[in-house]
């Protein structure tokens, strides 16, 4: 189970976000090496559904956000972004918590999914989101081909212009492999609505995103 977030501690951690940001240089060095040395893996469509991969803090949160988007058939929690084999929740080593998004490209496209990604997080927070801190919660946006990378790079360039002194923290990595998480993590927010973490972190994060992009939401996604 994810560590329960005590409300007072959450407020304290959020207040520190701008005061003592960790450096993103190490992640950017790793990004540069990966982009140079790794060829992105292109996944195959399944019954007309394409796949996209994102990491942005707790996968319980990210899964719920993407499953609220019209055209997304399913979001699956798992691990990606590292080199270790057979990661688990207790030991996923260099991987980040990530989600695999299965989507209908006739309803929602990759460009829009990237917009969802950036609209649903603190884009400048390094090594985490909200109260979840550490490399396991780092933000990564994965590309499978040059077209996807171009979309990502252009959006980051534009965001960086708007941010001024701050910069987008997410790594941009060539997709390699996704490892599906244990069964109890799937649809966690939906199946555990009374969990303190879900109440205090996941649902508020989802609702904040929904206010930003109501035009992309499925019907009946209220919390």
Automatic annotation (TrEMBL):
Keywords (alphabetical) are: Oxidoreductase
User: Could you name the active-site residues?
Assistant: 58
Question: Which SUPFAM superfamilies does its entry note?
Answer: Peptide methionine sulfoxide reductase
The record ties this protein, via InterPro entries, to: Met_Sox_Rdtase_MsrA_dom (IPR002569), Met_Sox_Rdtase_MsrA_sf (IPR036509)
Q: Name all Peptide methionine sulphoxide reductase MsrA domain ranges.
A: 51-197
The protein's Enzyme Commission number: 1.8.4.11
Q: Does the keyword Oxidoreductase apply?
A: yes
Which family does the record claim for this protein?
Belongs to the MsrA Met sulfoxide reductase family.
Protein name as annotated: Peptide methionine sulfoxide reductase MsrA
Highest classification ranks of the organism: Bacteria, Pseudomonadati, Bacteroidota, Flavobacteriia, Flavobacteriales
Encoding gene, per UniProt annotation: msrA
């Amino acid at each position: 189970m994810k560590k329960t977030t005590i409300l007072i501690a959450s407020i304290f951690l959020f207040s520190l976000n701008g005061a003592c940001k960790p450096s993103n240089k190490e992640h950017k060095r790793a990004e540069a090496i990966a982009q140079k040395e790794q060829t992105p893996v292109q996944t195959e469509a399944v019954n007309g559904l394409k796949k996209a991969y994102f990491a942005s803090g707790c996968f319980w949160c990210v899964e719920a956000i993407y499953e609220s988007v019209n055209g997304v058939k399913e979001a699956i929690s798992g691990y990606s972004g590292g080199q270790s084999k057979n990661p688990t929740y207790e030991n996923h080593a260099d991987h980040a918590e990530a989600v695999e998004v299965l989507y209908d490209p006739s309803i929602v496209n990759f460009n829009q999914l990237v917009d969802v990604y950036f609209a649903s997080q603190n884009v400048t927070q390094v090594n985490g989101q909200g109260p979840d801190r550490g490399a396991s919660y780092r933000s990564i946006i994965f590309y499978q081909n040059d077209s996807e990378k171009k979309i990502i790079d252009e959006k980051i360039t534009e965001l960086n212009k708007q941010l001024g002194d701050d910069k987008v923290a997410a790594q941009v990595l060539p997709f390699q492999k996704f490892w599906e998480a244990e069964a109890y993590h799937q649809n966690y927010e939906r199946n555990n609505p009374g969990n303190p973490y879900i109440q205090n972190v996941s649902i508020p994060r989802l609702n904040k995103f929904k206010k930003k992009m109501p035009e992309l939401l499925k019907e009946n996604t209220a919390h």
